Each structure stands twice: as structure tokens, then as C-alpha cells.
Amino acid sequence: MKALLLIDIQNGFCPGGNLPVPDGDQVVPVANKLIDSGKYDLIVASQDWHPAGHGSFASAHLGKKPFEIGRLSGKPQMMWPDHCIQNTKDAEFHPDLHVDDADFIQQKGQNPLVDSYSAFRDNDQAALTGLAAYLRNKGVTALDLCGLATDYCVKFSALDAVEMLPGVSVRFIEDASRGIDPAGVKAAMEEMRARGVAIIDSRAALT
Fold first, then answer.
1. Mind listing the GO biological process terms from this record (predicted)?
2. Is 153 a catalytic residue?
3. pLDDT per residue over 12-21, tens digit each?
4. Class for domain 2-51+86-205, per CATH?
């Protein structure tokens, strides 16, 4: 059972969004080829889905600016611009993404007291989203993942997949993903590879 996990390919992380990843929209046609290929038994998408005033937003902390380090629930936290607020256009999937073909959508980041990069659990690792249980129940044995952003939500999702889905082969599709910081992307790929995640491109995924 082979699954594809599309991570946070939303308006908020694409050009024109509130937290745009450089060239984030360029992952959409590649992701669509993967979705439409027939190579996957299961298509899953994660969706950042923050309440207004989420604690990871700089606007929720007096005197803090986006991309400064602050604190959330007593722990260091990157302060982000307000983004992907529930039921706003910013939180919607990119309009060209073939998300209607997804079998399951996993929303995340709904607890205002903790951020949630990974599609599998909150950053404090205390609360699970339920995605790992869903994939186990479906009998998934191989998981390919891609999306936005490589150095944050994609990386943490890949690392959690390795830890929480023992026995499942995990692959990161590089050209169907984009990151925020080039140095961060390089470090993320090194960390993923060191933890057993295979780094491939979409051509390899489609063969």
C-alpha cells in the first residue's frame, strides 16, 4: 500500500500569501503529476488550520515582529506572520492543486498554545493529529511526501513518519517541495537522509 502525503500546499505558503515560500506555487504542477499518476493507492493532504490569534503569530505577542524568536508555552518559538487562519482564503489549498482527488485531509495547528509543523503531531510531541493511526489502519507500507516548506513542515513530517510508522519506507520528493531558507533546506535534507528518509525526485517516484 503506497501513499502520497502532500504537505500544506496552501495559498498562505504560495506567492501572494501571508507567509509565502519562494516559488511555492511551482510545486503544484509536479504534485498534480504525482496525484494523477495512478502510482499511489492513497492520497493524503495536510492543511495548516490556525485559529485567529494563534500563539505562534507575532501579532499575539506585544512588541514581537515576524521571524523573531519568542516563547510559546514556555518554549522558544519562531514568531510567524498571521497565516492560514481557519476559513480564510489564505488557508485554502492552492486553487490549481488536484486536492479533490485526496482520500483524506489532515488539519493541524489548531491548538493556540502550541505550533504544529508536522502533519503527525504538535511540536511539543504531546498531541497526535491521528494521521499515523490513519495510515497504519490503511495498511500503508511506503510513504512519499512533498510540499511546503522543506525546512519546516516537510522535514518534521518526514522525521515523524520514520519514528511513528516503523517498517514503512519514507521518501522525500525534492522537486515537488520548496523551502524558506537555502541553508535550512540543505540542513533539513541532511537530517532527513541521516534518519533514513530517501531523497528522490518526481521522475523516480513515477517509475
1. pyridine nucleotide biosynthetic process
2. yes
3. 999 999 999 9
4. alpha beta
